[in-house]
Write a structure and sequence with these properties.
- It is a single chain.
- The chain has about 280 residues and is an all-alpha fold.
- About 50% of the residues lie in helices and about 0% in strands.
- The longest helix is centred in the middle third of the chain and has 20 residues, at about 130-150.
- The chain is globular.
- The two termini are about 15 Å apart.
């Protein structure tokens, strides 16, 4: 019990330290630095998702790339139809892949937006026992249908969207769900965190329909390593099972908002290795 209380007190203290908007800046970059510029935009959720799906690699490079995109054109096919070179490419995504993603998002917006699809999955799909995963898998399926209709699923587009495991379907809940070896869906879970939670870091524009207690931690290398070190993750693989395992532990610390600790764990794992010993 003492060890548990020590970890909770430690994480609560550092949550207050990191739950400051200005802590995300050019010196301490995060994709939110770009996303927050569009607060209040009519397509904010779609802009946030676009940013989330391309948030892999160095935070500095992510912010640099996303900062070059004119998201005012996200609901228009003019960007896609233009033959002028854009020099917009990022790691696994070619210039053509970025055009395809813009076309996907233009169609997504025309069909009612990501909230409509996400909520359909949350309330109706049964891929897994976890409603937030159902929402994510349904959204991935829907975007991949758009891509297939366009005949455009390159490696770059495939990587950005993610995929639904072959052993899952819309009624998979009738079978045993095995999270081992499956993708932790870090970028999608991060997007869900941004839109569902509400504090000085996250926006919470969907928290009227989804409770923060439904969320799963966006497991990356930093949170995975730290979760292993403090004994909250037993597996050696940073998979969906590990994400659920860490989330379950965080629920014991704060059942109504367990993912409040995500940004704390990320920053601690990324930059403050010395003080992690306080958690052990």
């Amino acid at each position: 019990m003492k060890h548990f209380l020590c970890q909770k007190d430690f994480l609560d203290k550092h949550y207050e330290v990191y739950n400051i908007r200005d802590n995300i800046n050019e010196q301490n970059p995060d994709p939110l630095l770009v996303v927050r510029k569009y607060e209040g935009h009519k397509h904010f959720a779609e802009i946030a998702l676009f940013c989330a799906l391309l948030s892999y690699g160095s935070a500095k490079e992510i912010v640099k790339f996303l900062g070059r995109i004119d998201f005012a054109r996200l609901d228009s096919y003019t960007f896609v139809e233009s033959s002028a070179p854009t020099s917009l490419y990022y790691r696994f995504q070619s210039e053509q892949d970025i055009r395809v993603l813009f076309a996907l998002f233009a169609r997504l917006i025309a069909d009612g937006g990501i909230k409509k699809i996400f909520m359909q999955g949350f309330h109706q799909s049964q891929y897994t026992p976890h409603r937030i995963l159902n929402a994510i898998y349904h959204s991935i399926d829907s975007l991949r249908v758009y891509a297939r209709d366009m005949g455009e699923i390159s490696y770059g587009v495939d990587f950005a969207l993610g995929s639904v495991p072959q052993d899952l379907g819309a009624d998979s809940i009738t079978h045993a769900f095995n999270a081992k070896t499956k993708s932790p869906l870090k970028r999608w879970n991060m997007f869900a965190r941004w839109l569902v939670r509400k504090d000085n870091i996250d926006f919470g524009i969907w928290n009227d329909e989804i409770s923060p207690r439904e969320l799963i931690i966006p497991l990356d290398t930093h949170t995975f390593r730290l979760g292993r070190e403090i004994g909250c993750i037993s597996r050696k693989s940073a998979d969906l099972h590990s994400a659920l395992e860490l989330t379950t532990y965080l629920q014991t610390l704060c059942k109504d908002d367990p993912i409040k600790y995500d940004f704390v764990l990320y920053r601690l794992g990324q930059t403050h290795r010395a003080i992690i010993q306080e958690l052990l």
